[in-house]
Every structure is written in structure tokens, then in C-alpha cells.
Amino acid sequence: MEKRNTIQKQLVLDAVHKLANHPTADAVYDMVSAAHPNISKATVYRNLTGMSEEGKLRHIHMPNGADRFDHCLTPHNHIECTICGGVADAPQITPELLDEQAAKETGFTEVTHDVVFYGVCPNCQSNA
Amino acid sequence: MEKRNTIQKQLVLDAVHKLANHPTADAVYDMVSAAHPNISKATVYRNLTGMSEEGKLRHIHMPNGADRFDHCLTPHNHIECTICGGVADAPQITPELLDEQAAKETGFTEVTHDVVFYGVCPNCQSNA
DNA sequence: TCTTTAATAAAATTATATATCAATAAATAG
DNA sequence: CTATTTATTGATATATAATTTTATTAAAGA
Fold first, then answer.
1. May I ask the CATH architecture of the domain A77-126?
2. A6 touches strand C (CB under 7 A)
């Protein structure tokens, strides 16, 4: 008796898949609580971080605002629009190289990294 | 009469220089308030972000904990120890290339980025 | 069905950062 | 040097993101 499948956990996972576009915990809460009004925000947070640790989701730490969660598990980066705040996928760029080089030059081991790009999204470009 | 030089601003700038190792706003506040007990935390935050915008300091947005501030203005990245939480300098890696490639593949313009590395620092390696 | 205990709901708490606003003091003019 | 202007400050309140706490609930195995 280790892990249990709860309705709440399933609803949270479904919401991240349905929302697709890198929702924040709050956005997930909004969607889930529409169908299941009594769900607690703490439960949403717990399940999001828990399932990220299990590898069912990806936890994206945004340097500015709230963290986001991604249903897509293949390696890639993210780009945030500096105008509307929307987050899109960005290409993954030679990550092994980055980590190796940083390890060599800093003396740190087990090196990983986060990259977040910023820019103006196509939509905000045309509305300017 | 535009910008004013205040004791508080000078104390904050000095503290970031003296602390050197990428202090958080809180660490700066601790040092400054030792010499100037009445200083407000809001003033420390205001001066840190203000001087970062003026280019006198660099504001490092950390994806996890509190933001940090760097007296060193030459371009480089940072690496955070996953054990002790300390932050060290990391090499800058082909940034123009990253931004260009991300812009091309996403359709975003005016692309910049943040990179933060994570790893185990030399000190935590030997204490393991 | 019963038992165990992982997971939940609700509220309080922590951490980081910003906003508000009356009071203060730095820069300049006279 | 003094007066004036207003940027800056201090104190507090507020905002946002996320975690902790604790009694209760319910999932899974016996």
C-alpha cells in the first residue's frame, strides 16, 4: 500500500493535459474546481509537485512568476512573452555540452540547468 | 533634480560589493541594518531593483528561491548548489546563438534568456 | 467487511516582493 | 545660508506563491 489513485490526482493530471499550454497551479485549480468544487488548492499543489517527481509531469520553474507544469515530457525549453505573459515551447539547445562545460569550469558535479527565454510572441507583435 | 544619492542607497551598494557572493535581498538587509538599524526592508528592495535597472548591479532571477544581486556586471551565468544553496559564477555560453535559434524556431522577437545551472558544489562534494 | 494509513480539505503560516502614504531630507535656487 | 521642491524613506499593509498543520476521509489490501 504505497501510492493511491485518487479522483483528485486524476483530475489534476487530466487538467494539465487538457490545458496543454503550460498552466500554472492556479490555472489547474480553476479548471479542476469547476468539476470538483470542494478540491483544496493544497491538493492541487501536492499532486502537481508529486506527479512531477514521479515523472508524470514536468515542473517548469519560471524565474519570474508562478511555476508552470507541462504534460510534454520530451526535453525542450520554454519562452515567455514579455508582453502577454504566455509561455510557448522553445527548442532544446545542446544541453549536454552546456552542463559539461559548466561542470568543468566550476568544479560542481551532477550539473543540470534551466533555461527560460523571453521575447515578444507573434500575437503581441501584430497587436503592437 | 532627478536622482538623489542617499546614505541608504550607498549602504545597499556597498553591501552587495562586500558580500560579493550573490546575496539575496534579505542578506543585504541583514548587513545594512547592522550599521543602520532603522533602514526599511522596502528601501533595500527599492534600491536593489532600482540600481539594477540603472546598470549598477545585476538582478539575478533564481527559478527557485529568492532573487539575488551581483556586483559583477560582465556577462556570465550562475550555478546553485542543490545541497547548500550557495550560488557561484558559471561561464557564459554562446548566448547570441541561443537567442537567435530560439527566435527562429518560435517566431518570437527580441529574445533574451536566463540560464541557471544546478549541481553539487566542491565543498558539499567533500562533505558527502 | 474491517483495518491501515495515504491522501484530502480547510485554514494558518511562511517567504518573497510590492504598494501606499505621511514624513524626511537631498539638491538646487535665491 | 536658508527656503523650496520633490525624490526618497520608514512603517505598515497588501499581494502572490507555496507549504505546513491537523483532523477527517477514503483507497487498497487483509
1. 2-Layer Sandwich (3.30)
2. yes
